[in-house]
Amino acid sequence: MADYTGVFERVEQKYLLVFFHIGADRSGEKELSITIPESLDYTEVFDDIFKEYTTHTELTEVKTASLGSLYKLHYRVRLADDRNEKEFLDALRCRNGNLEVRCGQPHTPVEQL
Fold first, then answer.
1. Which of 4, 21, 74, 99 could form an SS bridge with 35, CB 3.0 to 4.6 Å?
2. Which residue pairs from 107-112 have beta carbons closer than 8 angstroms and sit at least 24 positions apart in sequence?
3. Please, which residues have CB within 8 angstroms of residue 102's CB and are 6 or more apart in sequence?
4. CA-CA-CA-CA torsion for 107, 37, 92, 73, nearest 10 degrees?
5. 71 within 8 A of 62, measured Cβ to Cβ
6. 91 beta partners
7. Confidence of residue 106 (pLDDT cuts 50, 70, 90)
8. Whole-model pTM above 0.85?
């Protein structure tokens, strides 16, 4: 009977690399933070804007602020066209009631250094 232990280990390693995005191409990614009032449903409120301006969007964190009256949403996004960044941010600001929107280079977590 053949020993498949090595094959299974390699498959498991590849799965973990893909699942945790280790070694993934992160060029062009930006970190996006948006503050919204609690009255907005953060799960779908920006879907149409993301579809128009991005090729990849990942919600990475949701925090409450101001005693729960605001949500701070953190995304990793890849813009479809970097020249439209201002237009993208303006669309987000219109949707969130002109609360804070921040877009910049992603921070490298300490464990990746």
1. 99
2. 107/31
3. 32, 33, 34
4. 20
5. yes
6. none
7. confident
8. no
Say if residues 94 and 20 touch (Cβ distance below 8 Å).
no
Q: Are 31 and 76 in contact (CB under 8 A)?
A: yes
Q: Are 57 and 75 in contact (CB under 8 A)?
A: yes
Strand 70-79's sheet: what is its strand order? 54-65, 70-79, 29-37, 101-104
Which residues in 12-42 are b (16+ Cβ under 10 Å) and which e?
eeeeeeeeeeeeeeeeebbebebbbeeebee
Percentages of the chain per state (helix, strand, coil), in multiples of 5:
35, 30, 35
Mean predicted lDDT score pLDDT of the chain: 84
Phi then psi for 47, rounded to 5 degrees? Answer: -55, -45
Cα–Cα dist 39/43, whole Å: 12
Separation between Cα atoms, residue 87 and residue 85, nearest integer Å? 5
Contact 45, 88 (CB under 8 A): no
